[in-house]
Structure formats: C-alpha cells, structure tokens
C-alpha cells in the first residue's frame, strides 16, 4: 500500500497523491483524505476535532497513516473512532504515531 517506507521525521513528505492512494482502496477513501485528513496533515489550526465515526473500511496501513498524521499535528484535541470496527487497526493507529504525540488528546 505504501510506495516506500520513510522515517517518522519525513513522513509528511508523502505527496498528497500518495496519501490519497493510501486511503483510496475503498469508495470514500480519497474523498476522506481530501476533505478531512489533508487538514490534519498540514496541521490546520482550525481543525481541532477529527471525526472518523463509522469508517469501517480502513486497512491497518491506513490506520497507521492516520496515527502518523496525528503524531505530527498539534491542533487536534478530540478524536472520534467510534463504530469503526478498528480492532486490528487500533494497534496500527497507536504504533503509527498516536502514542508519540507531544500534544495530548482531550477526548478519544
């Protein structure tokens, strides 16, 4: 799914096309990236809540990418992953970078 492995410090150097492709394996993936996750990637100060409620189609690799995007974001305070059927993807989300955030979430 990933074009190539990169270290954490240059993770955001994935192009938008590469990011879209990581989420593009299902119907709403690329649209989700364009409308929601791109703002997280670019640390938009107006984006403080990430609502992924009922996103059941993400692969473990996609969850890892989300974790990395969240790791590098300083503005997201709340994350909703309810009803995502994320059992296997939760570890990917956490290991992908969510556990390494310097700015804590106030709501998960």
Task: Describe this entry's structure for a reader.
The chain is mostly helical. The chain has one domain (9-100). 39% of the residues lie in helices and 6% in strands. The chain has 4 helices and 2 strands, in the order ααβαβα. Strands 1-2 form a two-stranded parallel ribbon. Helix 1 (16-23) crosses helix 2 (29-41) and helix 3 (60-71) packs parallel to helix 4. The longest helix is centred in the first third of the chain and has 13 residues, at 29-41. The protein is globular, with a radius of gyration of 12 Å.
In short:
The chain is built from four helices and two strands, in the order ααβαβα. The chain is mainly alpha-helical.
Chain-wise SSE layout:
Elements: H1 16-23, H2 29-41, E1 49-51, H3 60-71, E2 78-80, H4 87-95
Parallel strand pairs: 1-2
Helix pairs in contact: 1-2, 3-4
